[in-house]
């Protein structure tokens, strides 16, 4: 069984992460103290290392973990508040950032990215279509320029995205605008940035999509899905 190690002092966070990893058949060990966490990470190999940004010394812990040979192949995950600025080491040293507030649904979506990085089979779920659909995203309540992205893998519920390296809006909801291939209509909906890796990949979850757009999306997916469920493994993380 795959193993993971969590640093958090919040009982709710420990419970939610434990439940999410259990669904992925990943064993979770949790620590509330950084010294204990570092000792375990140094002595044993873990497939995933998870750090809660509410732990004050978490950035320092991550910097030390980066130097451990036992953690060289570990997927490094940070649980972070969706704020404008993030500690430098979280951006450069982590592979996945899962945004708070955490919930079972958010984790179910975000941990799909972790599962792929841990070389596990993808979760059985809705049909997906691999594509490269141009789209624009922008903060819902802020006067900021829209960011150009590509929807790389699309389902009824969300999409994996590709973008130029840099930061994406991490507000609770963002505006999403795109048009499906062969369809002149542009869809406008609200979405949530579930995760990003600061290397040009991320995952969106659709929050509020008009009924007509959702129906057209479902029809398009049905027409374009691959006959086999063995779809491309990379890029389906949302």
Helix content: 25-40%
> Mind telling me the CATH superfamily name of the largest domain?
Response regulator
Separation of termini? Answer: 23 Å
N to C succession of SSEs: EHEHEHEHEHEEEEEEH
The global form is: elongated
Order of strands, widest sheet: 6-7-8-11-10-9
Total count of helical runs of at least 4 residues: 6
Q: Under CATH, the topology of the largest domain is which? A: Rossmann fold
Low-pLDDT stretches are 120-125, 228-236
Layout of SSEs?
Layout: E1 2-7, H1 11-23, E2 26-31, H2 34-43, E3 48-52, H3 58-65, E4 75-80, H4 88-93, E5 96-99, H5 104-117, E6 128-139, E7 147-155, E8 158-162, E9 174-178, E10 187-196, E11 201-208, H6 211-224
Parallel strand pairs: 1-2, 1-3, 3-4, 4-5
Antiparallel strand pairs: 5-10, 6-7, 6-9, 7-8, 8-11, 9-10, 10-11
Helix pairs in contact: 1-5, 2-3
